[in-house]
Queue: 4 jobs
Job 1
Amino acid sequence: MTKIGVVVGSLRKESYARKWSVALAELFPADVEVEFLEIGNLPLYNEEYDENSPSEYTEFRNAVSAQDAIIFATPEYNRSTSGVLKNAIDVASRPWGQSVWAGKPALILGHSISNISGANAVQSLRPTLAFLDMPVLAQPEVYLANSQNYFDEDGKLNNEETRGFLQTVADAFIAHIEKTLNN
Ligand SMILES: Cc1cc2nc3c(=O)[nH]c(=O)nc-3n(C[C@H](O)[C@H](O)[C@H](O)COP(=O)(O)O)c2cc1C
């Protein structure tokens, strides 16, 4: 059983980042367990909390620690990733020397409701994940443009060509996880 944790960088109930993640999660093989790691309850990171961390921090760090691999699904906010996602990354990266991200293969899914497609958000995350020692899937890159056009009223993906692309992404990520963890 391979465990993949999904961190969604939007707290919106109707978030497209979440909808894209759900559509992708459905395409993994049966021996993959996908868990959404919620970040909306995490207090803003404060280094003083390293001494005596809030229970939300501990629970989130433990939840990340239990995963074999991580998907970061990010919207684009002002040509970068969202603050809530960066906060969650910072929380689980500390205390210094105890980051729970290290070594976990990662996938960055970027999206936006414009033609920009979250590309800047994805690029903003790359140096952070490199520093945190997370091998990020290089290809295919996942830039999803005009997200508002891809879901029906029930939140289901409405485009088979795009589902085919997401299947390619799912297959490549599984191969990336196996290669990374078996080396
Ligand atoms: C603070 C803020 C900044 C944004 N900046 C960008 C941006 O730089 N580029 C872009 O394409 N969309 C931008 N948007 C629009 C988002 O793509 C859109 O709100 C999207 O639906 C957010 O993702 P979500 O559906 O997962 O919540 C921004 C939205 C917000 C709220």
Note: The longest strand covers residues 2-8.
Job 2
Amino acid sequence: MLNFITNEQMRKADEYTIKHLPIRSIDLMEQACNSFVKRITEDISVNEKITVCCGTGNNGGDGLAIARLLRLKGYNNITVIILNIFSSSSPDFIVNKKRLNQLKIPLFEIKKANELPNNLDIVIDAVLGSGFQGTLKEPLAEIIKKINHHAKYIFSVDCPSGLNIDSSKIKKYQGIKADKTISFQRPKLFFMFPESIVSSKSHEFVFIGLNEDFLQSLPSDYFWIEEKDIVGKLKVRQPFSHKGIYGHLLIIGGMSNTMGAAVLCAKSALFTGVGLVTCCVPKENFSTLNISQPEIMTLERENFNEISLNKFNSVAIGPGLGLTQNSKEIVHKILKEKIPVVFDADALNIISEENWLGKIPANSILTPHLKEFDRLFGSSEDWFARLEKARCKAKELQCIIVLKNQYTFTLLTD
Ligand SMILES: NC(=O)C1=CN([C@@H]2O[C@H](COP(=O)(O)OP(=O)(O)OC[C@H]3O[C@@H](n4cnc5c(N)ncnc54)[C@H](O)[C@@H]3O)[C@@H](O)[C@H]2O)[C@@H](O)CC1
Ligand SMILES: [K+]
């Protein structure tokens, strides 16, 4: 698990690594740029026309080093454009400018938008990185507008220029609209939110050699879960074992017009390793289940009151359940049992409609998508506010909240 960190924390990790590894700042920049180049050369061929647009801070220094490293890898069609509009240059920018001069890469310095060429193909955006603060003013705003207009594909270095990654409020975004942002050492929380799409269509990160022990020691409320964090938790099938020892799940859901939701839920449960799955659906829908996934067992929803929940290791209620009076009675009965349950879809809609949030047993799991979440907890100004609300509600209700989206947030109770 990697902790999401702020720009300020990243700056500290940068300083710590330089001091304790030890490594010179210019060499750390070189490492970062090597990682960036390694990643983008998987996407672009040596013949592509590449324009590297640079500011004069360290993000600009990265751009110059990236241009040089690409050239050394055989990318011959590179042009560097330095925006000569900033009051100062960072020391590592100056060193990289000298290094670049030795390679005879075409280099232009511009001050105004009309000095930018129109025929930009692939652009590497290294104008501003994490040092950007405040708002974009002229002539920078116009230059960025022109880059956005003329580029066919934009890779942003670390973050799209003109985006303040630590502020979730981006109304009237004026910065670079990247196709792909490749950030350093950590994913950026902002890119987990749908709102980030105005600044970057996709996002990846590369390791650059910052001190991981220090980074992991930095406080954070949010963590990025990787595949390797999950695989170890899945129960591997043991020799001579059988379905009876891998748990029995009861799913209460599905109606004639929404039986697919119950089927998909059962299939996913079996796929992730549950030994036995029983679906409690209206009797007329048994054949749908039997045809779609023959190993699913069935219980008649009409006889729900006679079912003993104790024989199941876990219970999930909601997918395709419907909002009928009968569905409401079943949700109510489940809530009264006071056992932790997975509440999804219509079960959540019923809970918000009936105002039953306070009745949810501790340690339950709530799996809302955006709209279900807002119905439960009210609307939020933006995704960051929604996430913070989810984190507080998980603690307050002592329930795990799984807020589903392209990136799914799992909010724990502690
Ligand atoms: N995180 C790390 O450990 C590393 C970071 N590196 C790079 O360093 C970058 C940060 O470098 P810097 O701190 O020098 O910052 P930047 O290069 O991101 O920006 C600094 C420049 O932006 C200007 N600026 C700030 N706000 C502005 C505004 N509103 N309008 C116009 N100009 C504005 C400043 O005057 C300054 O010239 C990162 O994004 C990354 O690209 C890498 O070089 C290597 C390691
Ligand atoms: K950038």
Note: The domain at 234-361 is CATH 3.40.1190.20 (UDP-N-acetylmuramoyl-L-alanine:D-glutamate ligase).
Job 3
Amino acid sequence: MTEVPWVEKYRPRRLSEMINQTKALGQVRAWIEAWLHGNPPKKKALILAGPPGTGKTATVYAIAREYGFEIIELNASDERTFEKVERYVQAAYTLDILGKRRKLIFLDEADNMEPSGAREIAKLIDRARNPIIMSANHYWEVPREVRNKAQIVEYKRLTQRDIIKGLVRILHAEGLTVPKEVLYEIAKRANGDLRAAINDLQTVVSGGVEDAADVLAYRDTEKSVFQALAQLFATDNAKRAKMVVLGVDMFPHELLQWIDENLPYVYYKPEDIARAYEALSRADIYLGRAQRTGNYGLWKYATDMMTAGVAVAGVKRKGFVRIYPPKTIKLLTESKEERSLRDSVLRKIMKEMHMAKLEALETLNVLKAIFEYNPDMAAHFVVYLDLDLKEVEFIVGDGEKARTIWGKSMNIEKKLKERGELEEHVRVAAERESEKEAEPEEGEGAEEETAEEISEEELQKAEEEIESVEESGEKIDKPKKKGKQATLFDFLGKS
Ligand SMILES: Nc1ncnc2c1ncn2[C@@H]1O[C@H](COP(=O)(O)OP(=O)(O)OP(=O)(O)O)[C@@H](O)[C@H]1O
């Protein structure tokens, strides 16, 4: 199988290869043809607006190919974009006269522009002699002065059926098949994003379809963090840096680890690297304090330090920065021993919490964070899931922390046992008493009545004893195991 990403390999070459989006494509075609007929449209810029992976960029490339344009692709959020656009807007006219290929300016991320950049771009649109196409996920976040000068073309979120159509087309071309359930699962998870679906399909096929569920689960977390970090490392703007991680579904300490391990590839001057690491270590201090005091409001400061603090630390390497997952999160490359530990932990989560494998995988990620930051709660999970020390070490990834949690779990076990013995003792006493009282008379009704009288007294005493055990230390409640699925909230609500 080839290494070329399928999203590139199967990028539509012509508008007729695009899936759905008929209305949008009609509008784009009419607009570009107006340019070609020497009668530029009233609005010289176009904003293709819609959810990710629905064909906005693909449209621009297909149209350029069909109509013979050269694309100048620029990122609208880059502060230097304005100068470049200016250069092309000016240069293009002369080039046209010389008979060179027409230029089409494509500005990605128009919803991420600085206000000053926006004013300049708006002026350039007025002077433009070439089509300017912009792309945005949220058109209302495109600065107003730019929006007013552009025609909006809306792209729809693709349906599951559209996604499956796109995937099947690729499978045909590659001469491959995958089970129908896997295709449906990918289409469902993609949430209208064909790019994500194609990437998932390629990952699943290259990883062997038996592991499809696992691969998909890991990709879910990794996808958004890759995107967020790429944006974080591309900006010098503190505010934007804070914003890009908002949608990342990850605990701050995990995010810190991702940023930590990728930093050396982003900055190259030693003093800048040092500044970035200083910001990270302050974030780490906040995280530690949050854990000790239970004041999780500090997470916000920690996150600000690791995003804004890092973003403004110095001069970054230019161009594409590849983001690597930190070793601890890179589950797909675990050793055999780690894999078998992970599987045994997963089996326990599935059994005790009545979860399917995918949910159990998600739960495992949450447990990792809890084990790292909340040893008391972690100890309850150890008892509840009946984990052994090796499994605890696997989850927390640190021998010392594992032993602390293990010690706490032993105490809980001990208390549970004491409570169990007490209850057993009371039960036996109550039974003995009821047998004694019931002897003269046979018959169920009488037995029940006597047993009730005696057990009330005994149980009262027992409950007092149990309370005193409970008050003496840890809570020893377990979430309900049977019947309803137990969730992490059963635990979180208790501490
Ligand atoms: N409507 C579509 N028809 C055919 N292929 C599509 C369509 N939408 C997306 N794709 C596939 O997904 C890939 C990514 O799509 P594209 O780059 O056009 O997304 P986008 O809408 O520009 O997303 P973003 O907003 O994230 O930039 C394309 O290369 C193509 O392979």
Note: The two ends are 51 Å apart (CA to CA).
Job 4
Amino acid sequence: MGSKNKLKRFKENETFTNVVQPAREEVLDGFEYKGRWASFFGNDNPIVLELGCGKGEYTVGLAQINPDKNHIGIDIKGARFWRGAKTALEEKLNNVAFLRSQIELVDHLFAEGEVSEIWITFPDPQIKYKRAKHRMTNPEFLERYKKILAPGGLINLKTDSEYMHGYTLGLLQGLGHEIVYANHDVYKNEGAPQEVLGIQTFYENQYLEKGKSITYIQFRIN
Ligand SMILES: C[S@@+](CC[C@H](N)C(=O)[O-])C[C@H]1O[C@@H](n2cnc3c(N)ncnc32)[C@H](O)[C@@H]1O
């Protein structure tokens, strides 16, 4: 995408009522919506997050299926989620928001137990050992998710990366967390839920064109 187009999207994001773009300091000093997301949406429906949402396909797709839940896509790249935010406004989906922030700050963005479910869609697997701290299912991230999830809250990981799939399964088993469901090729092996089969992301479509298998894990943190 050209820089002119990006600038246009950044400008438009500022006018979108469903986009929240706090400065890092605001988040660290006591974020206005932490513990108050119900006031943002005007109801206290369950909150579902998509972390590293890119263009926000899951945020919009799940919001269409579940109008009685509030969906928030988080990404640091505003020019990407501009797409999802615009679609949600055009379709008058008032249960959608996009939040521009670092996922590392997620426990500053939401209060304890404020989130009912998390989707992690096609994260960069960060295979190199030095990059492990950025892997979105590493133990530090799981601790952050645990803080903000309500009791029994679910985490969903959908990825093309065999590495990320295997790493996460091994970690969950080792730490004694509950693996609710796992499938290493969702379009081939029967049993994956409709939410997994019926929504495809931008990155997913690229992997599907290359004939890659798509994997899925649903789990709970103990
Ligand atoms: C590989 S892309 C996947 C995007 C989308 N989920 C999809 O499937 O098309 C990963 C996304 O995560 C975002 N991301 C990666 N690390 C992040 C972080 N620490 N905080 C916020 N966003 C992050 C990137 O900006 C990028 O949009």
Note: The chain has one domain: 3-220.
